[in-house]
Recover the amino acids of this structure.
């Protein structure tokens, strides 16, 4: 009996000390990072729609900057940053989802931002669509092949009602315009997808020989629509589609605001998404954008289980890669917050 208890106790101790496998994509000792650092530009639960910075050296463990204060007071919106044709950074925003215009600022160093343009899409010109005049979460993609920017956003065509508040969200569709300089824009907004399903928080990427649309499926989840309120991905051979092969959910239900970054070694993808409203962040990982994807353990605040960590109460925004020199400059200017 004593021998059995000793064996059982030894097994328990070993299991309690066991370290779970680390996620793919990290750089091994002696190897050089393909992607040296990362910036998460975001809002917070307490200060929704304003601009804050959080940074990482491995894409998994994140620290806030600027003593948890705003980094640019003028900004309003759901932050989305792109490195443009001229090597400068551009950020899109809007005063609120009721706003009719898209605001764009530009920066050489991600520290000082200057107003670049204000654009009001004429939504009434959208073919085969009768939208409400609303601009939700504008995002910018720069297409190297065509040397054009694509500005996307979501716009509904139905108001919510007391009996059916979800009607408003289910009616969201993703629209876009193009531009060569983010000062002048194509006249007619177009729908990005032909699907008759709600889509929000959409952004585009070009990788692995294809164009990819990462979306939030905005239809409410039911047994008839089990993919509702999840993050999904579709692909196309062409920038404006048609986008096909719409994936099964990459995230659990009730997740939004996806963000995609390549891993430090460039051999995996990290896809973050928010469990709203401001509850936590999840992280899914894949070697290829077509999947398969799996979800990492994190945000549990137990070191043995957390394979990624992020400060609490951060809300959605965007993640981009940085050079180590850019990371050092941001840290030197704003200062890291040790928590």
């Amino acid at each position: 009996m004593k021998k059995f208890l000793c064996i059982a106790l030894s097994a328990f101790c070993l299991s309690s000390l066991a370290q779970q496998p680390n996620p793919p994509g990290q750089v091994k000792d002696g190897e050089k990072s393909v992607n040296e650092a990362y910036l998460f530009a975001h809002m917070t639960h307490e200060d929704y729609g304003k601009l804050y910075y959080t940074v990482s050296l491995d894409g998994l463990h994140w620290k806030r900057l600027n003593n948890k204060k705003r980094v640019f007071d003028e900004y309003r919106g759901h932050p989305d940053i792109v490195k443009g044709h001229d090597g400068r950074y551009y950020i899109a925003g809007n005063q609120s989802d009721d706003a009719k215009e898209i605001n764009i600022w530009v920066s050489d160093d991600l520290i000082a931002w200057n107003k670049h343009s204000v654009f009001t899409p004429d939504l009434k010109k959208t073919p085969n669509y009768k939208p409400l005049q609303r601009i939700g979460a504008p995002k910018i993609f720069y297409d190297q092949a065509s040397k054009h920017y694509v500005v996307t956003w979501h716009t509904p065509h139905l108001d919510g009602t007391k009996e059916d508040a979800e009607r408003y969200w289910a009616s969201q569709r993703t629209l876009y315009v193009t531009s060569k300089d983010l000062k002048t824009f194509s006249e007619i907004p177009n729908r990005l997808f032909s699907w008759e399903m709600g889509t929000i928080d959409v952004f585009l990427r070009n990788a692995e020989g294809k164009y990819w649309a990462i979306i939030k499926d905005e239809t409410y989840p039911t047994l008839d629509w089990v993919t509702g309120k999840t993050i999904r991905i579709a692909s196309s051979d062409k920038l404006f589609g048609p986008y096909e092969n719409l994936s099964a959910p990459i995230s659990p239900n009730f997740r939004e605001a996806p963000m995609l970054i390549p891993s430090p070694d460039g051999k995996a993808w990290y896809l973050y998404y928010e469990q709203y409203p401001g509850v936590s962040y999840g992280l899914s990982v894949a070697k290829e954008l077509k999947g398969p994807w799996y979800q990492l353990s994190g945000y549990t605040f137990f070191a043995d289980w957390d394979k990624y960590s992020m400060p609490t109460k951060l809300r959605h925004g965007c993640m981009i890669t940085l050079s180590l020199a850019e990371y050092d400059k941001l840290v030197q200017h704003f200062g890291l917050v040790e928590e």
Observations:
- The two ends are 47 Å apart (CA to CA).
- The helical segments are 2-17, 166-170, 324-334.
- The chain has three helices and 19 strands.
- Residues 2-17 have pLDDT under 50 and may be disordered.
